[in-house]
């Protein structure tokens, strides 16, 4: 059964439950360190648009299997649970939809990714615990000002009706994470969506690629197929894990941290 106090304890958060910015920062980071992204559990290349049938999660069922049971999840599961957690803590949470940057440099469909924002003292903060690739491990304020988290710089700007969120490690260029419309969403929008808002153009994404990721104390580790990206204090390193033993060990490191909430 979904329980806020047990949820926080399980992910290793032991601070104040007051709905402040400091609490929000700590809870998002602890969640990302403790609960991994893992699309292998839901891998099914033949579901088509029926993948959106599960977006309106059962919080009790998802809580038991992911938070208590220890398995990873995908964006709508992880951000769905996070939405219930934050609203249970008293935060003013709204759902947003994002189009994630693809390997081609383009963006996916508008309703591809579900995440959210929190309003605090008249300002909006993006919160997201469910995206596969490298991203912000603490909330980002919706502003045109550059922000820095653990050595990585972030910025966002308006373009063609979207807010585009970009990141820049210590070495490398600015690169988009995703774009989104500043339009608060309702979960029912995914129940019977316009196909143009959820379908990928042919060839845009490699179907069936397993993705695993988890935050660490000062960065992230992201495994896309056998390509392993590690981020630490803004420094990035990439390796292709050819050795099957090393690959399995890396997957295990991401999905089964020795202690929940500890990098």
From TrEMBL:
GO terms for molecular function: acetyltransferase activity. It comes from Herbihabitans rhizosphaerae. SUPFAM superfamilies: Cysteine proteinases. InterPro entries: Arylamine_N-AcTrfase, Arylamine_NAT_domain_sf, Papain-like_cys_pep_sf. Belongs to the arylamine N-acetyltransferase family. This is Amide synthase. Pfam families: Acetyltransf_2.
